[in-house]
Amino acid sequence: MTSQASQPSAIILAAGKGTRMKSDLPKVVHPVGGRPMVCAVVDACLAAGCKRIVAIVGYKQEQVREALKDYDIEFAVQEPQYGTGHAVQCSEEIFRAAGYPGDTFVLCGDGPLIRLATLENVLKRHREKHASATLATAVLDDATGYGRIWRGTDGRFKAIVEQKNCTPEQLAIREVNPSYYCFNTADLFRSLKSVTRNPVSGEYYLTDTLSLLLNEGRTVEVIEAVPPEDVLSINTLEDLAKVDAIYRSRPAIGKANLTGAAR
Fold first, then answer.
1. Element holding 17 (H helix, E strand)
2. What does the pLDDT read at residue 109?
3. Threshold 0.90, pTM exceeds
4. Please, where are the H alpha helices in 107-156?
5. Each residue of 218-235: b (16+ CB within 10 Å) or e?
């Protein structure tokens, strides 16, 4: 647990529909462990000592707000939805009013297998290296569909390369980006102002901030900290059932009975 003076913040991306779930529910409201999956992400952030948590909502936002009604968190609305970079930018007014404090996790609300230890390891590396951004990675036997972590010959992070843009050599990379980030808050929002819309998708990507920060000479750290099991995507009801079974098999810590989770 971090001291109050150095408590991080968190932004949880929870605005999407999840079109392949064959349901009208917002994706993050689908149940894992008997409650909306986004609750597990909030619990992990609280356990990591986060003082301010902002959920980005959009599609059927009233259902996401209802799912999180027992938590002392704030909401920002992303409407319309123009990608992950745009989603984070929708919370800027909240952080500007607070003076862009300290460090901020950026996490996806559909990742209920997140572990407290992962957040602790990311934050520790981030602060030890005085980084502008730190991302946790995972190494998978099958990296199909994930953005690859491209490192230089010195082992330092160079870029995240989406699968469709990979060279044959990059396709062989097994280290991937599961979307666990920690940013210096001021650097995050400053760099987002320079992110341009992707010409193919029309979206603004959060990952573009990493290359922008590197180009400024800032430190971007990478830590292999996410167990492969935790990276399981929930895109179908079958995926949901698999993740639910894993979640239920774990010890109770980090679940609804976590001390201080709802307040």
1. none
2. 96
3. yes
4. 116-128
5. bbbbbbebbeeebbbebe
